[in-house]
Design brief:
By secondary structure, the chain is of the alpha+beta class. Helix content is about 50%, strand content about 10%. The protein is built from 45 helices and 23 strands. The strands form six sheets. Strands 2-1-6-3-7-8 form a six-stranded mixed sheet, sandwiched between helices.
């Protein structure tokens, strides 16, 4: 009691505190107090036993009744129609052949359905009810009824149909005899009258209808008119596309390449085939003029003959019903289906009372569920419809026997009225007419399993069909068995013979089997059938309402139920005991002695039997379903092909499949998808396809938030229904039309053209980068000789100043030169040098001597070995891969990587050194230089003419050999230098007037450059299984409201004047006008056709013209002093023009006068622009080549920069009034579509109207040409930066190579000064006697000496600092080259440039995310 009072007081205190918080309007405190009030003070803990038991079957011997709980209580509520509409209202009993109303389906009965192609007229429910009223036979005796007999419904209807056929034949004969028509038929007897009239009727029908059916001529004429219209449409499309491409800057051969073979319309004018058919139909009419006149004169006979044809067709329909009953009974008997008291078949022609509109509407809505709940579907693959010949062939079969059968039905046989087979085997099925009908799509997809018969009703057997009901169950059972990982009998699965032994257990028992009368072939399916029969003998049954969500619980429920009840099944215990005898030898895990009555053992046995069934049939079922999807025209339903779902598919996929199918009533193409999409709504036949499709999509969006509804395209398919611009008008909108495919061809060729250009540039850069990085590693790891350094410098000049397309033919030759530098010159020079005693480099075998200065560098190869020597280098001719740019090595890779000294140039194969000329062992001596002399080269001297490389000549060679070798090497050097300079100057012509060529000595060098293989741009997957929006979508009568991503775009419309003329001549404001446009995101551009209302198009044309003037053409462009969009101020040519202008000339725009000079001018001034004999300095040339850019390319680059700034508008309110791209937010796979965005009157609401267009797909879009120009400049800058780095590093190496000489010079001067000081001390007496003026005279040479020493010291220090600096700069630049160069471009361009560099798709990325828009 005290506790209750304390608890009450506590609650009161808490309530007062809550009230105070409410009065203070503090929501955070309210939330905290509510948590205290309602969160329990203790929480239960749960024990995780997954480690002990994670198998599907319980391992505990204790059986819990909770295992029998149903897996879901939402089964009935999840059914749109509930239990009442789950099964058909009428079915035909297979055993009694009675038409049963509200049959008992479930534990007592099961049913199947017939899928077929309608051939009007068919036997309907009306025929059955009419036959029932006459279905009595009375036996009279002495005037009294002594017996009354009644036939079943099927037999009564059959008799009625055949009786009507005979009666109608007699009626036709009567009409002929009563008129003078018999005289015009010729001399024929009475039995031939019907045949002659029907043959004449066949000829007349062929002339009137032919293969086109009713109104054949009208259809042909319409098709011809459509062909002419398509021809004109294509002409206009090509003209507009040419204009759009020209606006983008595409000209000449590039324009022809894009337009390609589609430059001329592909449609004939008019369509020749249609005209030929029309002429053929007219000719047939002329040939049949007499017969047409005959039936025109005797119209009553024509009407009677038409009724006779209908009677023949009804008899054929009745045979279909009887044959389907017999085949369905056979399927139930032969295959693995549950045993029930009743078996039924549902046939749509006769089991629906179409006269009852209420019943008809309910049946159409619930038909999908009826297919889903049926045990199987029998598919009749009949012959194609033939309006001319088919009924005549049937009459010739029926007529001779009809009278005899009416007298004695015991003589009737279905075999006598069966037509010839059209398909021999199951694998011969190929695109039957059945697969082109609208309703058969739902019948195929939603049925659990299917069986097929040909036109003669013979089974098209396939082995996997023997599984029966388990064909549907196996995919779900596999979901359960994959969790059963601790079954002790898993060893059976590893032994194929063991599975066969398990299957043979059935034959060793007396268990009753339905397959006892059939021969079971020893195949995987036969083994699976035996195991299924064993499970049936143990009363193992899985519920039929199993699906993907309930698969595992349903199977587990069946396993537990069997384990708990098997003890009462004696035959089941015996069977289980024999199965255990087979399983025991294959037990893997330790397991106690299995007992047949132990529930755990039973669960394990059932689990392993299920695994055996899955192992035997899983692959066969998958292959069979793929084959059915192929000939059944149901491709693209991945989960259905796996057997896991049968409804609630993505709407876009279901619509795409329906678009290729026909229906007698066009509206059935919408109603036939209700079951597949998991919705129901009342039907109304008069509403039309567009309205029915709109209501269907409303239901789909409302119930599932499926965004794939809006993934349609086609400018001609926009819905005319107000408030439903997001919907299409027909299912064809979900597949590309012919016009869209043609436009995709244009876009693909344009994208390929630009991709080829981009890929070639990327490939060239990577090849050049590989060479340069190899050179960089060579310079960093080895001392490059002066000859190699000179050639590398010439190569760098050429690479820096030329564009990639100009360098492309010379890359392989440049690589050979570099390989020659690496192997030939480096090895020969290094073999001739060694280390002096003090670390000073000397010739091999020589001693260190004082350097001998030279005034000018020698141009002969002999000067290289007489110059400063480099450290010895290894003689291995190994080739090395170019470093991967920007990558980092792991510690393990660093340890395992070879020494830097083995670095090669790029990825070139190193040739054998024997191929480079004569080389003999021994020490090498430089020609033209005394032995051991070291030539000093000034660090600040510039080498104008590269030195001539000359290998060391052996002392044994005579003077003539030396002269020839010297001449040869001088020739090689001259040719190489001439070639490199021709590459640099772009003339490729030597002084002799002939094209510069590579020396023969270098042509044989093996230098293979690997080319990069480019794949498709990286992009997100376009096709996804589900596209459910996480955000609410509100479907209202006035429109559809949701969260959309909005991307501003630049729209360009050609021939605006023509569209304005169309607008003026259009009367209604909502009348649609078609045209073409380009849509650009600033990064990429696509071309589409559109169709939109007049009032919306009129507004957009004004926007397009404004954007074109302000953004594209930039009419208010800046003067020379204006700042460019990419941050640059003017260019060099503009600066020179401004300097040349008169100072008195007034500026064009005084308010935006340029202040100061451009960055380029400042850089040129810093290096000096004075001209020498050779023109500008090399640094100035390099700088100008870096900044060189054509005027057209610069304009394109500026244009795309303005476009990107335009589409990046952050305020969505400023975008209102334009056409924009939109898509549903947060849904992978949602497609962009074009829409008109506007603001509401309140200012905070946004409204949109979708513009019907062709597909907008940026995955294959073409980059903006301006963006391509910026990217090309970006690649040139990277090349320039890398070349500049190597040049700087070479210069630092040159200075560093003289460091030892400077150190020697410094040491000698200091020693000399010290020696002079010692001499002065020794002569001190004389010094004392010197006068003071003599002492002062010695001060000047001392100062000069100190200055020289300090200068040498500074030179030594600076050489080391420069080398260290540039080496570290090189290491950093290798990793950050992309980022450093990107910083030189505007921020809004950097992402696009990086995407192009990484070969990624330029998808829209600068959009306003998750904006609420009301689409009307």
């Amino acid at each position: 009691m005290d506790y209750v009072k304390a608890r009450g007081n506590d609650m009161v205190a808490r309530s007062r505190a809550a009230f105070e918080v409410v009065t203070s309007q503090n929501p955070e405190k309210i939330r905290a107090i509510l948590n205290l009030l309602f969160v329990p003070e203790f929480k239960p803990t749960f024990e995780d036993d997954s480690e002990d038991d994670d198998s599907a079957a319980a391992t505990s011997t204790e059986f819990h009744s909770g295992d029998l709980i149903a897996p879901s209580v939402q089964l009935v509520s999840g059914d749109p129609g509930g239990l009442q509409n789950r099964y058909p209202y009428r079915l035909i009993d297979l055993d009694t052949k009675e038409l049963v109303v509200l049959p008992d389906i479930g534990t007592l009965g099961q049913y199947c359905i017939l899928s077929h192609s309608w051939k009007f007229p068919e036997v309907t429910y009306r025929h059955f009810t009419a036959a029932k009223s006459k279905n009595f036979t009375k036996v009279l005796a002495a005037g009294k009824v002594v017996n009354v007999t009644r036939r079943n419904d099927v037999e009564a209807t059959r008799q009625s149909c055949w009786s009507e056929l005979v009666e109608q034949e007699e009626e036709v004969k009567r009409l002929v005899h009563e008129s003078d028509a018999l005289s015009k038929l010729g001399a024929i007897n009475d039995d031939e009258i019907i045949g002659e009239l029907l043959r004449r009727l066949k000829d007349v029908r062929e002339a009137e209808r032919g293969s086109y059916g009713q109104d054949g001529e009208e259809k042909i004429a319409k098709a011809s008119a459509d062909s002419i219209a398509a021809h004109q449409e294509q002409q206009m499309e090509i003209a507009n596309l040419r204009g759009l491409l020209a606006d983008l800057g595409l000209k000449g051969d590039a324009l022809k390449t894009v337009v390609g073979g589609d430059g001329e319309p592909t449609h004939a004018t008019p369509n020749e085939k249609e005209v030929a058919k029309l002429q053929e139909r007219k000719a047939a009419k002329k040939r049949q003029a007499s017969n047409i006149e005959f039936f025109s004169q005797y119209g009553h006979i024509r009407n009677a003959l038409d009724k006779l044809v209908n009677c023949v067709t009804l008899c054929r329909s009745m045979i279909k019903i009887e044959q389907s009953i017999e085949r369905c009974k056979e399927v139930f008997d032969r295959n693995c289906f549950p045993k029930t008291e009743k078996r039924y078949v549902w046939i749509d022609t006769c089991c629906i009372n179409k006269d009852d509109s209420n019943e008809y509407v309910r049946s159409i809505s619930a038909m999908g569920d009826w297919y889903k709940n049926a045990q199987f579907c029998l598919v009749h693959l009949d012959t194609r419809k033939d309006f001319v010949q088919e009924w005549l062939d049937d009459w010739e079969i029926f007529s001779p026997n009809a009278h005899k059968w009416l007298q004695d039905w015991d003589k009737f046989s279905l075999e006598k009225v069966t037509p010839k087979p059209n398909i021999a085997t199951y694998r011969d099925i190929h695109k039957p007419q059945w697969s082109t009908r609208a309703w058969t799509l739902q019948e195929l997809v939603m049925s659990k399993t299917t069986f097929y018969v040909n036109s003669s009703w013979a089974f098209l057997d396939r082995p996997i069909g023997g599984l029966g009901y388990w064909y549907y169950l196996c995919p779900f059972v596999s979901l359960y068995t994959e969790l059963d990982t601790k079954n002790p009998f898993l060893g059976v699965l590893d032994d194929g013979k063991a599975i066969a032994e398990v299957a043979q257990v059935l034959e060793q028992t007396t268990a009753e089997s339905r397959l006892a009368g059939y021969e079971l072939v020893d195949t995987p399916v036969g083994k699976a059938q035996r195991i299924i029969e064993m499970l049936d003998a143990m009363d193992f049954h899985i519920r039929g309402d199993i699906d993907l969500n309930t698969a595992r619980p349903r199977v587990m429920q069946a396993v537990n139920a069997t384990a708990s009840t098997l003890g009462a099944n004696t035959s089941g215990i015996v069977l289980l005991t024999k199965i255990l005898d087979v399983l025991k030898p294959h037990t893997k895990a330790p397991f106690r002695k299995p007992l047949p009555t132990d529930p755990t053992t039973v669960k394990h046995v059932i689990g392993i039997l299920l695994k055996c069934i899955v192992a035997l049939t899983e692959q066969l079922i998958q292959e069979d379903r793929e084959y059915i999807a192929d000939f059944g025209n149901a491709r693209g339903l991945g989960m259905w092909q796996r057997g896991l779902i049968s409804n609630k598919f993505a709407t876009s996929k279901a619509m795409a499949l329906m678009s290729t199918r026909d229906a007698t009533e066009e509206i059935d193409r919408a109603y036939g998808l209700m079951g597949m999409l998991g919705v129901r709504f009342p039907t109304f036949q008069a509403e039309g396809l567009t309205k029915a499709l709109s209501r269907l999509l409303d239901e789909v969006v409302t119930t599932s938030n499926d965004v794939s509804v809006f993934n349609w395209t086609g400018k001609q398919y926009g819905s005319p229904i107000r408030g439903r611009s997001l919907y299409p008008s027909v299912p064809e909108a979900y597949v590309p039309s012919e016009e869209e495919s043609r436009m995709k061809g244009f876009e693909k060729r344009l994208a390929e053209l630009l991709q080829i250009e981009r890929y070639e540039c990327l490939n060239d850069f990577e090849q050049i980068q590989g060479m340069l990085l190899g050179v960089l590693e060579l310079i960093k790891s080895r001392q490059v000789s002066d000859d190699g350094s000179a050639w590398i410098k010439e190569i760098l000049k050429a690479l820096k100043r030329r564009e990639f397309k100009d360098l492309r033919p010379h890359i392989i030759n440049i690589s050979k030169i570099l390989k020659y530098v690496e192997t030939k010159i480096g090895d020969v020079v290094s073999s001739a040098v060694g280390k002096g005693p003090e670390g000073v480099e000397t010739e091999a075998g020589g001693s260190s001597q004082a350097p001998r200065p030279v005034d000018t560098p020698s141009t002969s190869l002999s000067s290289f070995t007489s110059s400063v020597k480099i450290p010895s280098m290894p003689k291995d001719g190994l080739s090395f891969k170019a470093p991967k740019f920007g990558s980092k090595k792991s510690e393990h890779e660093k340890e395992a990587s070879p020494a830097p000294s083995s670095r090669g140039i790029g990825k070139f194969k190193s040739p054998s050194l024997k191929g480079f000329g004569l080389k003999t062992p021994g020490s090498s001596v430089s020609a033209g230089s005394p032995k051991g002399e070291i030539t000093q080269v000034s660090s600040d001297s510039q080498i104008q003419t590269p030195p001539q490389p000359l290998p060391a000549t052996p002392a044994s060679l005579n003077d003539e050999a030396k002269r020839l070798e010297l001449k040869r090497t001088e020739t090689v050097n001259t040719q190489v230098i001439s070639y490199l300079r021709s590459v640099e100057s772009a003339d490729h012509i030597s002084e002799s007037g002939e094209p510069s060529k590579l020396p023969p000595e270098l042509k044989d060098i093996l230098a293979s450059i690997p080319e990069r293989k480019f794949g498709k741009p990286k992009a997100e997957a376009e096709d996804v299984d589900t596209m459910i929006s996480p955000n609410p979508i509100l479907v209202k009568s006035s429109g559809i409201e949701g969260l959309f991503d909005i991307q501003r775009v630049v729209v360009t419309i050609p021939q605006i004047s023509k569209l304005r003329r169309q607008i003026k001549t259009t009367i209604g404001a909502t009348q649609n006008i078609s045209g073409w446009c380009s849509i650009s995101t600033g990064f990429a551009v696509v071309f589409v056709g559109f169709s939109c209302p007049k009032n919306i198009l009129e507004k957009e044309l004004d926007v397009v013209q404004t954007v074109e003037a302000k953004i594209l053409k930039h009419e208010e462009s800046n003067n020379d002093g204006d700042e460019d969009e990419d941050g640059e101020v003017g260019d060099l040519d503009d600066a020179e023009t401004a300097k040349a202008a008169s100072p008195s000339d007034p500026p064009k725009r005084p308010g935006i006068k340029r202040q100061g000079t451009s960055a380029l001018e400042k850089r040129l001034k810093s290096i000096g622009t004075s001209k020498s004999e050779g023109g500008k300095s090399d640094q100035a040339k390099d700088l100008l080549s870096e900044e060189s850019e054509t005027k057209e390319a610069k304009q394109e680059r500026k244009r795309v920069s303005r476009m990107i700034k335009f589409v990046q508008e952050p305020a969505l309110s400023l975008v209102a009034g334009e056409w924009v791209l939109a898509r549903f937010s947060g849904v992978p796979g949602a497609k962009w579509f074009l829409c008109y965005l506007d603001m509401g009157s309140s200012g905070g609401d946004y409204y949109g109207h979708r513009i019907a267009t062709d597909e907008i797909n940026f995955r294959n879009a073409s980059p903006e040409l301006g963006l391509m120009r910026s990217w090309e400049k970006y690649m040139m800058k990277k090349k320039y930066r890398l070349c500049s780095l190597i040049q700087k590093l070479l210069e630092s190496k040159d200075r560093s190579s003289h460091k030892a000489l400077l150190q020697q010079d410094l040491a000698s001067k200091i020693t000399e000064r010290i020696n002079q000081g010692k001499a002065g001390v020794a002569g001190g007496t004389a010094a004392d006697e010197m006068e003071e003026s003599d002492a002062d005279s010695e001060t000047e040479p001392i100062a000069d000496t100190l200055k020289a020493i300090s200068g040498l010291a500074v030179d030594v220090a600076s050489a080391g600092i420069a080398e260290t600096f540039y080496e570290r700069w090189a290491s950093r630049l290798e990793k950050s080259l992309d980022g450093d160069v990107l910083k030189e471009f505007p921020v809004h361009l950097q992402v696009a440039l990086k995407s192009l560099d990484d070969n990624k798709s330029l998808m829209p990325s600068m959009y306003h995310s998750a904006k609420r828009i009301h689409m009307f």
